[in-house]
Amino acid sequence: MPVTDIDGNLVVGFDPEQLEHYLAQARNAAAPPFGASVADARKITASRGLPAVSGAYIGAVKPGLPAAAAGLKPGDIITRIDTATVSSAADLDQALSGLEKGARIRITFVRDGSPRQAEGML
Predict the structure, then answer these.
(1) Which end of the chain is more exposed for a tag (fewer CB within 10 A), N or C?
(2) Could you tell me whether strands 36-40 and 84-85 are parallel, antiparallel, or unpaired per DSSP bridges?
(3) Are 57 and 48 in contact (CB under 8 A)?
């Protein structure tokens, strides 16, 4: 039975979900902080009886970090980072994990049903 060590987290056997979870954590540890708590927008909009929207739903924004500096607010739904489509919170994490501190990014998002864009720096 295989045992995999990912930054001190042991995965016994082949559990794809657990492996991906720990690998994403390891990738994100090196990524600069974005400063927003996010969830899958489709789940949030469905739970509120709204039309389903794909993206990363912003639940909270931390002052002084890139999300706040770009003008993002709770309730916004990020749909794209540069040219990467964001259909879920995991997509946002993946899009940001490949960027370095100081990188300029273009954020496409929805606020109150209207598409918007903002630029920011990580």
Answers:
(1) N
(2) unpaired
(3) no
pLDDT by residue, tens only, the chain of 122 residues: 455 555 555 555 666 776 676 667 666 555 567 888 888 888 888 887 877 789 998 988 889 889 999 999 999 999 999 998 999 988 888 888 878 788 899 999 999 889 999 998 88
d(C-alpha 63, C-alpha 120), whole Å = 14
CA–CA gap between residue 12 and residue 54 (Å, rounded)? 33
3-state secondary structure of 45: helix
Task: Please give the Cα distance from 18 to 14 (Å, whole number).
Answer: 9
Amino acid, res. 122: L
Residue 114, C-beta contacts closer than 8 angstroms, at least 6 positions apart: none
> Cβ contacts of residue 121 below 8 Å, gap of 6+?
66, 69, 102, 103, 104, 105
